[in-house]
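>> received
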Amino acid sequence: MSILVIAEVSGGKLRKATLNAVTFARQLAAARGDTVAIGVLGAGVGGAAAEAAAFGPVHVVDAPALATCTAGTWAGAVADLAGAVGANAVAATSSTFSRDLLPRVAARLGAGMVSEVVAVTPDGRFKRPMWAGNVVATVEVKTPKAVFTVRSTEFALADPAGAPGAVAAAAVTVADDGKAKVVSFAPTVSARPDLGEAKVVVSGGRGLKDKEGWKVLDPLADLFGAAVGATRAVVDAGIVPNDLQVGQTGKVVAPNLYFAVALSGAIQHIAGMKASKVIVAINKDEEAPIFSVADYGLVGDAFKVVPEMIEEIKRARAG
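>> returned
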């Protein structure tokens, strides 16, 4: 039996997030004596399949009906692929893609599902956070098949396998279920790194007040080549788009350096960034909860402190 990792593909290329799920699958395979394979689905995904082969055997489902990701059609294809390759587990990195897709796959397979897995125990059980990370549950799956979404911040990117895996077209017929169609797709175009993959993230909160105030973050992000994130309050206020939201209901990130600027540190936001390697908090309220998780804290007005800090960093780099 095998563990099937469902790859994420964007622009014909394999997304790095897939490799976190591969690491999870390898750990689970070691605990259970299983093997790991990667499923690459979509239309025109030959290049992504070749990339994925560096990490293990690849099963490809290439069909026009998979050109856009409608969860119903994709769920049928993934479930059929799992059956075709004899997989007793299906996994993917937790994202908007997998959160939409994999519960439907689990229903089709009659499989138990564990979401947001953060660890595999030596006896093959799973740890997942609850109550915004305040509780970590240990979960056992008793159904013959299981489905998992994996928190990327808790599993390293997989190293390539010793030798490239075989790439094979799977014997799966894909049919559009006709229940939904993609009318248009308007991607957010940015010169900044992807929020989920960036090594440095600069996040702001409602203390920045409005779109004009938000601009104080740009020079700091430019200085570090950083991605920009936001709290839910900022997104709800329409200051930035929702794909920048960091937190329990947004993206979970774990960069090497995380700047938390003018954000109080509500528990829902902390749940999405507390795994960051170094956290720098800037807030004029010395009692702000964000300081409880920060490695470095600066009490002050962000509109004054951030420009001063930028100048000091520039001086230090020049010297």
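>> The chain has nine helices and 17 strands.
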